[in-house]
Design a protein that fits this description.
It is built from 16 helices and ten strands. The protein is of the alpha/beta class.
């Protein structure tokens, strides 16, 4: 029996120190897909890696072996001991797994409910799985239904209207620290989507002195121009730390961008002015030891959990509507999944009837004499139509019984009546 399984960790089950071990190397995604492909117990597979979750979604007919294989893959990618990784993992199968996937796509399982980034990340994970030919009938259907569910949630509820992104949360934290952001100097390290969102929120809260650093300087120029900021190179980060009040880091670097020694070296010239780092990257951009320095404060992505709950009541109300949509779609997917059990019998029935039809046409054509192409086409259409009408009712009955307790009995009777198991 084919099972659908999710094995992974997220912001609720594992600390950022553990999650970043698996998210540090960008090559972990293709490595994971190759490892899933080589595992005989896994039939289809997908690997999702974001700042808040690392998950393997797969189908298998050997759950225990698949579970062992996935845990081994995750342990190998992160270099994490068995005990540590098992403590942070969750395992979901079948209905619970389908529900989880729909909730993830709809941003109901995110740290910030309603944030839109996760859907794009899930779509990208699916694209990479299809490119590796790791997505088949079940995962293809599951992913497309997940995207459909996300669209329904977005259009039929107001959950996105009340959403608060991680970047927004970072700016709210900065406001709590300084009370007033007007006149503060902000250094943005990284120029991706989260950095752009942070820049937009900063400008909306009175920040006018914004510097943007990015490893690709051209990208820093683009973002700085859009938000009336100043582009700086990565080599200038040290000098920028001398004047900055707030540093928001969100790069994809596998190594620390801000080090203990780097920050320590600039403190004397800062003359005891406080310096706040808001690190929303996973793996983290700021070395944790930086937080040990005097008048320096470091907040990472896990610290944002308790920072704000903007429109919390509204989000919770809209989330109830969204969960109802998810449950409805889970039931629909389950019905489809159960029809897979009758598909082989339906295919065998169609193939047998079509073989009989073709044999009878060949036999009849010899006694009819020469026919025109049009006459042969008419006979072909006629016999196909008769065959389809004859097996229509049995096929409809099989589909209706797909999710009933009597399914196996109906399948057995059908295969006996039509002698479908004859060699």
């Amino acid at each position: 029996m084919i099972r659908i399984v999710t094995i992974g960790m997220n912001h609720r089950t594992a600390p950022v120190e553990l999650r970043e071990c698996l998210a540090r190397d960008p090559q972990n995604v293709p490595r994971a897909l190759v490892a899933l492909q080589e595992n005989a117990a896994i039939r289809e597979g997908l690997f999702l890696s974001t700042c808040n979750r690392v998950e393997v979604l797969c189908t298998t007919d050997a759950s225990e072996k698949a579970h062992e294989g996935v845990v081994s893959i995750l342990r190998g990618l992160g270099g994490v001991p068995d005990g540590e990784i098992l403590e942070g993992l969750y395992v979901l199968e079948d209905t619970a797994c389908v529900q989880h996937v729909f909730q993830v796509a709809s941003s109901l399982d995110s740290m910030i409910v309603g944030e839109p980034q996760i859907l794009g990340q899930l779509k990208e994970a699916y694209v990479q799985a299809t490119q590796r030919r790791m997505s088949g009938v079940i995962l293809n259907r599951l992913m497309h239904r997940a995207f459909h569910v996300a669209k329904r949630v977005r259009t039929e509820t107001g959950i996105s209207d009340a959403a608060v992104s991680i970047s927004y949360a970072a700016v709210e934290l900065a406001k709590k620290i300084f009370h007033e952001l007007t006149g503060r100097k902000v250094l943005l390290i990284g120029a991706g989507e989260m950095a752009e969102l942070a820049a937009r929120h900063l400008l909306g809260n009175g920040v006018s002195d914004l510097s943007v650093a990015n490893r690709t300087f051209g990208r820093a120029v683009e973002v700085a121009e859009e938000f009336r900021g100043k582009p700086v190179s990565f080599d200038e980060i040290g000098s920028e730390l001398l004047d900055a009040d707030i540093v928001i880091a969100s790069t994809a670097s596998p190594e620390y961008v801000i080090t203990y020694e780097q920050v320590k070296g600039c403190l004397r010239k800062r003359r005891n002015r406080p310096l706040f780092f808001i690190d929303i990257a996973v793996p983290r951009d700021v070395e944790p030891r930086v937080n040990e320095l005097g008048n320096v404060y470091v907040y990472d992505i896990d610290d944002l959990k308790g920072v704000i709950e903007i429109n919390r009541a509204q989000r919770e109300q809209e989330a109830v509507k969204a969960q109802r949509i998810v449950q409805e779609e889970v039931l629909r997917f389950e019905r489809w999944l159960k029809t897979l059990g009758v598909v082989p019998t339906i295919v065998s029935l169609k193939e047998k009837v079509d073989a009989i039809r073709r044999a009878e046409i060949r036999r009849s054509l010899t006694s009819l004499g020469p026919l025109t192409e049009e006459q042969e086409r008419v006979i072909e259409v006629l016999t196909v139509s008769i065959a389809e009408k004859i097996i229509h009712d049995p096929i409809v009955t099989l589909k209706r019984k797909a999710d009933r307790p009597s399914r196996d009995q109906v399948l057995d009777v059908t295969r006996q009546l039509f002698h479908l198991d004859e060699s």
